């Protein structure tokens, strides 16, 4: 009789252990099915630290030698204007002139009165952003020297992203956690461990169209948290 009782007791004990194990597994699956996806935003306004300023002008004429001398004179005047106002020679590049021969172009308009035109550009690339902004307000002085420049696109850049990345990522993560905590509080839950986390691409855009030298840096982190009772 005893020989039958012992196996039965062991079987019952095994079933009890199995029941607890299954319940724990089911509870764990149910727990892991409860999660919340949140996004954390971090933004910074920064000043541009690099600027590219092309100073472009054109001349027209019928004698290439005379025009070449005029181009050389204009370029010297522009470079002198820049260097005498705080721009270093190594921050200035004089691009090769782009000549157009209207006389040899059979499709040229008859209204063009000259045989040749030459487009020229002197480019400033510098970290002296404030100095360039100052000179932009004074570039009309070149008109007094007979240089009819055209308004060109000025490219402002921010190159210090790596210096602020760690702080911005930490801020985005903190904001994501705050959003998860709020969701958990509203649903009578607690925030558990992180299931997955992904960092979005950093973007650098103009703060607005009138201040291209002020940049807005932005990043969004997406995090999935488990929720606990």
UniProtKB/TrEMBL annotation:
Organism listed in the record: Duncaniella freteri
PANTHER family (UniProt xref): SLR1258 PROTEIN
InterPro entries linked: 26kDa_periplasmic_antigen, SIMPL/DUF541, UCP029033
Lineage: Bacteria, Pseudomonadati, Bacteroidota, Bacteroidia, Bacteroidales
Protein name, as recorded: SIMPL domain-containing protein
GO biological process: DNA damage response
Stored Pfam families: SIMPL (PF04402)
Domain of life: Bacteria
């Amino acid at each position: 009789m005893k020989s039958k009782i012992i196996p039965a007791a062991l079987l019952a004990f095994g079933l009890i252990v199995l029941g607890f194990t299954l319940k724990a597994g089911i509870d764990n699956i149910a727990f892991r099915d409860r999660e919340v996806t949140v996004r954390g935003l971090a933004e910074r306004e920064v000043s541009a630290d690099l600027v590219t300023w092309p100073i472009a002008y054109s001349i027209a004429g019928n004698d290439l030698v005379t025009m070449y001398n005029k181009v050389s004179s204009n370029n010297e005047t522009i470079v002198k204007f820049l260097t005498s106002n705080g721009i270093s020679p190594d921050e200035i590049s004089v691009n090769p002139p782009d000549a157009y021969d209207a006389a040899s172009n059979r499709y040229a308009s008859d209204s063009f009165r000259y045989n040749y035109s030459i487009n020229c550009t002197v480019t400033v690339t510098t970290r002296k952003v404030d100095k360039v902004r100052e000179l932009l307000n004074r570039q009309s002085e070149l008109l007094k020297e007979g240089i009819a420049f055209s308004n060109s696109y000025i490219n402002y850049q921010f190159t210090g992203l790596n210096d602020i990345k760690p702080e911005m990522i930490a801020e985005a993560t903190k904001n994501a956690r705050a959003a998860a905590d709020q969701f958990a509080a509203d649903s009578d839950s607690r925030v558990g461990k992180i299931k997955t986390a992904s960092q979005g691409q950093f973007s650098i855009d103009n703060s607005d169209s009138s201040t291209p030298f002020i940049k807005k840096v932005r990043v969004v982190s997406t995090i999935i948290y488990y929720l606990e009772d």
